[in-house]
């Protein structure tokens, strides 16, 4: 009597027996996903770097509710022509009218300028040829940047007296969003034909290449459709669409490669070509490789789901995207693809070629060489990885600015002119909001004086006047802006040196000044970014610990070993260290900046490397699961650790390297984009995937396992019993007889 078929056996039998029904249902799902996912871009949101509940967030809320104002998020750079100055009567009159026009636009809550705030404002350039109009637009990032899409063209002016060019933080990031959408379309145009050519080279069959690409397309469209559904109850960033393209296509292709490869093995082992033979091959494929695909997908989803621990919609968007990608790619590879394989059968096999014996394979022979001399091969690889990762020791994290855009972007040009021509930037001012009357031994009147003496402060604007270096420098043109009920507002304007340095330290220096009020909240863009970074780094250890724990448990359940998951963790960290080392060397320090077309800022924004860690770690474990599944299958059959490692790598390494090449290509397309964030993601992820597949899995892993020998499979007796009950394996638990398949129909 045969053992009870597993759920995956039954799924494979159903897909094979009801292939037409499954394929028709798949086609309907594909069309629905295409129709619903087509509107995903419009439903996705733009994000700001904000930390809900933080001091900066509280300050901003008080400004909105009590002062009916906020930190300036839009600016117009006004330049007098023909050697004139902004104090010329005609220029001043036109500047005042420009301020009034901007204040009257729908979506603009407040607007002010050099001409409305007086001589003491920081809104005039040092040579007085330029001045600023600053404004605050209320609303979410999406609402504000939608308004700016119509406001910016109207306020890009060139008259006889002056030129007007828009900038500001929300204008910069609006243009970042536009560049990202262009990069998305460019990536689609480049990656699809390139991937198709790679698949044809791998398979040598149009049918196999077409099926694989079809699963990838299904994953992308289904992911976009699911993300659009998620927007019904939470915010999802537009950047998630970029991840949906690259990861959806990549994982869909990865999983299809492994399913089709296993199907080819099963068909090659079957002498006949009848319908029952195809059915049996499909069932064995789903029961073996399908199981590994599901657990591999779980590792990727778990790594990205850890981003839910961050209270930021921007990062949580990638968690939603990762889960949607895994669900759609796994469904396509384990349900739809087996039905298609049952239909095409031997047409997926390479023409006129039989699979060689495992022992004669190149990967098998090379693995035995490495395992016989593990130190000879392993130490150079280890040294190279450590050397490539060493620059990460000098990593500096900071706040993003306009340099994330290409040099030709209009808002970047404006911000750079402000940086070079103005002594300070009021748009990057800290907003100090106090509550209640001054108390204690320190009077409220000397609080702005002491703030103005903080290193890096250009001036402090209050309702009683402007203060510089502890002295009152003049009266305030609009004192009403600084009082609202029991709340007082002080604007701390940083100088250019502070802006070019560590803004987080500057923010902390301002916050450290003793205040004579019951409550003091420091906000503004630099403070918001500082709080965002602080919250990010505070939660990072928990995210990393969760990812390491989940992936460790998955590998233990697959191998029954404690040593192999520990080895995988160390190997993955080495792989990621290379990625981070290159990120620092290239994007922080500026090496290759001319070739890649970006401007280094001397620091990195921290959320993108954290996102890359989660993606790269999941993908590294993805490959680890596929390789270790084949090694464990061979070890369970033979009991010989050395031959099992060689056989497992021979069967999986060609697929891992092919999958890595395809995935690296999809990531690398973003290296040609205009936004630095996407360049970092593209280059860093492509490098991590290739290093992992070509060095870690094929040289370092066998070297380590050669050193460990039989200890590879060690675990304490209680854990061995746990694995015996709940462990997973690519080897089918029970092989369904052909008669069972026939009856299953």
Task: Give a description of the structure.
The chain is α+β, with helices and mostly antiparallel strands. Helices cover 63% and strands 9% of the residues. Strands 6, 7, 8, 9, 10, 11 and 12 form a seven-stranded antiparallel beta sheet that branches. Strand 7 and strand 8 (465-468) form a beta hairpin. Helix 14 runs parallel beside helix 20. The longest helix is centred in the N-terminal third of the chain and has 35 residues, at 169-203. The chain is elongated, with a radius of gyration of 30 Å. Mean pLDDT is 86; it is low at 730-745.
SSE order and pairing:
Elements: H1 7-17, H2 19-37, H3 40-43, H4 55-67, E1 74-80, H5 89-103, E2 108-113, H6 114-117, E3 130-137, H7 141-154, E4 157-158, E5 162-167, H8 169-203, H9 206-230, H10 239-268, H11 275-305, H12 313-344, H13 362-372, H14 374-389, H15 410-421, E6 430-435, H16 447-452, E7 457-462, E8 465-468, E9 471-474, E10 483-484, E11 487-494, H17 496-500, H18 503-512, E12 519-523, H19 525-559, H20 563-588, H21 593-596, H22 607-638, H23 641-668, H24 676-708, H25 717-726, H26 738-744
Antiparallel strand pairs: 1-3, 1-5, 2-3, 4-5, 6-11, 6-12, 7-8, 7-11, 8-9, 10-11
Helix pairs in contact: 1-11, 1-12, 2-9, 2-12, 7-8, 8-9, 8-10, 8-23, 9-10, 9-12, 10-11, 10-12, 10-23, 11-12, 11-19, 11-22, 13-14, 13-23, 13-24, 14-20, 14-24, 19-20, 19-22, 20-22, 20-24, 22-23, 22-24, 23-24
């Amino acid at each position: 009597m045969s053992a009870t078929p597993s759920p995956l056996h039954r799924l494979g039998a159903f897909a094979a027996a009801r292939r037409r029904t499954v394929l028709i249902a798949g086609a309907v799902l594909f069309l629905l996903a295409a129709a619903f996912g087509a509107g995903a871009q419009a439903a996705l949101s733009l994000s700001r770097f904000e930390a809900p509940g933080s001091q900066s967030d509280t300050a901003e809320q008080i400004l909105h509710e009590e002062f009916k104002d906020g930190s300036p998020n839009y600016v117009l750079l006004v330049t007098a022509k023909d050697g004139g100055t902004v104090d010329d009567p005609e220029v001043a009159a036109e500047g005042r009218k420009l301020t009034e026009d901007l204040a009257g636009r729908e979506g603009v809550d407040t607007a002010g300028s050099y001409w409305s705030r007086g001589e003491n404002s920081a809104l005039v350039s040092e040579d007085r040829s330029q001045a600023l109009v600053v404004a605050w637009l209320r609303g979410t990032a999406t609402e504000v940047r939608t308004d700016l899409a119509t406001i910016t063209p109207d306020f890009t002016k060139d008259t006889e007296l002056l030129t007007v060019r828009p900038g500001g933080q929300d204008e910069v990031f609006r243009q970042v969003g536009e560049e990202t959408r262009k990069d998305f379309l460019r990536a689609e145009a480049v990656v699809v034909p390139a991937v198709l050519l790679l698949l044809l080279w791998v398979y040598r069959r149009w049918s196999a290449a077409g099926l694989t690409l079809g699963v990838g397309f299904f994953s992308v469209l289904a992911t976009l459709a699911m993300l659009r559904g998620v927007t019904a109850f939470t915010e999802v960033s537009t950047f998630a669409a970029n991840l949906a393209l690259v990861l959806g296509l990549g994982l869909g292709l990865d999983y299809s490669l492994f399913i089709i490869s296993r199907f080819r093995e099963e068909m090659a082992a079957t002498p006949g070509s009848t319908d029952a033979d195809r059915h049996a091959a499909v069932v064995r494929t789903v029961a073996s490789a399908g199981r590994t695909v599901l657990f591999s997908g779980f590792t990727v989803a778990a790594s990205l789901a850890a981003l839910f621990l961050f209270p930021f919609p921007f990062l949580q968007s990638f968690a939603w995207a990762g889960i949607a990608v895994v669900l759609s790619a796994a469904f396509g590879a384990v349900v739809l693809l087996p039905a298609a394989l049952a239909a095409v059968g031997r047409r997926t096999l390479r023409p006129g070629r039989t699979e060689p014996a495992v022992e004669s394979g190149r990967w098998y022979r090379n693995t035995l060489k490495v395992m016989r001399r593990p130190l000879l091969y392993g130490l150079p690889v280890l040294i190279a990885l450590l050397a490539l990762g060493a620059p990460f020791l000098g990593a500096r994290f900071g706040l993003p600015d306009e340099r994330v855009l290409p040099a030709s972007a209009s808002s970047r040009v404006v911000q750079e002119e402000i940086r070079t021509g103005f002594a300070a930037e009021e748009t990057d001012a800290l907003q100090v909001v106090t509550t209640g009357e001054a108390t204690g031994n320190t009077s409220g009147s000397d609080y702005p004086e002491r703030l103005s003496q903080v290193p890096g402060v250009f001036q402090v604007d209050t309702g009683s006047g402007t203060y510089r270096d502890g002295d009152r420098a003049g009266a305030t043109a609009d004192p009403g802006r600084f009082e609202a009920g029991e709340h007082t507002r002080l604007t701390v304007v940083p100088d250019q040196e502070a802006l070019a340095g560590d803004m987080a330290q500057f923010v902390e220096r301002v916050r450290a000044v003793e205040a004579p009020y019951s409550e003091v909240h420091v906000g503004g863009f630099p403070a918001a970014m500082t709080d965002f970074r602080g919250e990010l780094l505070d939660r990072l250890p928990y995210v990393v610990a969760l990812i390491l724990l989940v992936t460790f448990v998955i590998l233990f359940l697959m191998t029954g070993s404690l040593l192999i998951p520990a080895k995988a963790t160390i190997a993955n960290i080495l792989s990621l260290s290379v990625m981070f080392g290159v990120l620092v060397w290239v994007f922080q320090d500026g090496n290759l900046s001319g070739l890649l077309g970006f401007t280094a800022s001397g620091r990195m924004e921290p959320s993108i490397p954290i996102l890359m860690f989660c993606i790269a770690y999941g993908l590294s474990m993805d490959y680890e699961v596929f390789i270790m599944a084949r090694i464990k299958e061979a070890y369970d059959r033979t009991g010989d650790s050395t031959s099992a490692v060689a056989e497992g790598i021979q069967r999986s390494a060609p697929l891992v390297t092919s999958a890595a090449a395809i995935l690296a290509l999809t990531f690398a397309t973003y290296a040609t984009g205009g936004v630095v964030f996407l360049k970092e993601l593209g280059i860093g992820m492509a490098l991590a995937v290739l290093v992992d597949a070509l060095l870690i899995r094929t040289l370092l892993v066998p070297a380590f396992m050669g050193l460990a020998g039989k200890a590879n499979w060690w675990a304490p007796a209680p854990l061995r019993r746990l694995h015996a009950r709940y462990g997973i394996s690519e080897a089918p638990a029970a092989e369904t007889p052909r008669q069972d398949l026939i009856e299953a129909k």
